[in-house]
Amino acid sequence: MIKHRLGALIAVLLQVICLTWSQPFPNYHADFVSIGDRDSDLKWWQTGAFYQIYPRSFKDSNGDGVGDLNGIAEQLPYLKEIGITATWLSPIFTSPMADFGYDIANFTEVAPIFGTMADFDHLMEVAKKLDIKIILDFVPNHSSDECEWFRRSAAGDPEFKDFYVWHPGRMENGNRHPPSNWISVFRGSAWQWHDGRQEYYLHQFVKKQPDLNYRNPKVRETMSNVLRFWLAKGVSGFRIDAVPHVFEIAPDAQNQYRDEPRNDWDNDPEDYGYLQHIYTVDQPETIDLVYSWRAVLDSFQREHGGEERILMAETYSPIDIVMQYYGNATAEGAQLPFNFLLISELSNSSNAHAYEGTALKWLQHMPQGRTANWVLGNHDKPRVGSRLGRDRVDMLNMLTATLPGASVTYQGEELGMTDVWISWKDTVDPSACNTNPSIYEQYSRDPERTPFQWTDAQDAGFSNASKTWLPIALDYKLVNVELERQKPLSHLNVFKQLWQLRKQSNTLQRGETEVKALSDAVLAVKRGLEHDSTFLTLLNIYDGVETINLRQSFPDLPPELKVVVVTERSQVKVGDLINSTSLQLQPKDSLILQSTSSYYSYATNGESRLLPVLGVYLWLAQVALYLSSR
Ligand code: GLC
Asked: What stretches in the chain show pLDDT beneath 70?
């Protein structure tokens, strides 16, 4: 009996010791961002891994040197393999290709170079079987000048007369001038004289891309019908192109357009940067237009059922404007207005504080209840490896896979594909072709659009054509899917592990987020969810070896953490246990750590605390001893 009593006493003492070890969890403060409570259902897109396919460069099935729909269908299992939820395709519609498909001649027809409508239907079937959602590019700002609507508008057909933005120009001393000083994104005046109609038309991009006139309700209705057409074909949503350009200011009472003011820092009068675009982008009407498109999607869903259809909006506007695209108290907007901050705010020399600021900027501006997203690259911007460093590809993929919300990967970034130098002779992008051989490289988007690298065979396995539409990268024998599948810690395999982990983990899908620079070199992202594991992602952005005490920055972390994802640069291995007071990171190393199951979390006085599992066993032992001693 005495023995039992002594045992119970020791157990009580040990339990008291354990309780004093327990830590408050989580450590709420301003930087925590909650993305929803653990029991509410997340919609498919809220934690989605999105993947952008640039169809010309993904996979060529018919040997003409240009990718196509059958190529995409053939390779969709690859997207499944790497954990992709949905893919958005750059335009696949009939087009003279003056801007590689962003100049659409028929919005409801498939371009022959990409295949047929039957090929599209086949792609949809394959996608459905694999449970990969298809998102199409919706290009509302302009059509091609070869579009039937434009032809009829130019001919003065009453039905289409006001479909585009036409103006007779300004007469000065008997001479005709463009209506305003507006400049096209792709250089030179945004106004083009049309001999047939004897008027200027507006084109914010190349002159073969006339701007549609959204002040005409018939244009709005026609474009909503384009959305309905593709929704009926089964797509899960749209990426909306060049959103801020859709409306420009209306002409004044004298039917004149106002000039835009100059930017002092740009002395090239042909360059888009020469003017401050206060009348041609970000007009307030544009926000409501996006809400009206969302209403089209929602009413389609109400009528036809199925999962929510989504809008992803392309806008490089100031953050306060971007946030309005999410919706307001009375109207829903784009579920995912693209977050381009990782592209626009970070450079090769950014330190961990800059990374922290960039991530928090989105999270702190985002309205309550909305979903974040992280875009690392696209077909308009230098590739992430070229922008932020080849040796940072894994850490950036790690960052976007562990930050809350959706992530968007541009094809090839999962392999570490980088920009390819393209000679002036081989340059095809209109943005560069409109310049000259001495400056074209600053404007060209060809370097990030080269064919996808599948294997080390001819044309990197992209095609069997003798010439592909853009040259193949020189590094394709070292950077390709086939090879990277075999290397356990290739970029591709790290990417796959990240998305496997993300799918398995409730914390990564819905936990709270803390983003913190631990020094100039080290960034930490902590994700925590009550009664679940805590994850910590660590990036060593620089080239030094860093020793860190995680408990100093995150006092609520357990003393020991398990390594769950590493890169080629790491010295620790998956499964290793590390001491949270002393961890070494190698140059440009990145890791994901997870709390081990030797801690339980419990609530007391409204605060959650962690308790070593040992404490729970001792408590049970104490009860058992007490009962047996009676
Ligand atoms: C968007 C597209 C870009 C295109 C432009 C005009 O920014 O991403 O590729 O050139 O719109 O449509």
From this structure: 1-40, 597-618, 630
Pocket test for ligand 1, best of 88, 89, 102 (most atoms within 8 A of CB): 102
Strands (E), 7-118: 23-24, 49-53, 86-89, 93-94, 106-110
What's phi and psi for 482, nearest 5 deg? -55, -50
Q: What is the pLDDT of residues 527-582, one digit of tens each?
A: 999 989 999 999 999 999 999 999 999 999 999 999 999 999 999 999 999 999 99
Assessment of whether the complete model's pTM goes beyond 0.85: yes
Which residue shows structure tokens 């997207």? 79
Instruction: Name the residue with the closest Cα to ligand 1, atom 12.
Output: 102
Residues 6+ apart with CB under 8 A from 447: 382, 383, 386, 419, 420, 421, 422
Domains of the chain: 49-143+219-260+277-415 (3.20.20.80), 144-213+261-276 (3.90.400.10)
Q: Which of 241, 243, 375, 429 to mutate to test the pocket of ligand 1 (most atoms within 8 A of CB)?
A: 241
Q: Report the percentage of the chain scoring pLDDT > 90.
A: 88
Q: Distance (Å, rounded) from C-alpha 88 to C-alpha 127?
A: 12
How far is 267 from 246, CA to CA, in rounded Å?
Answer: 27
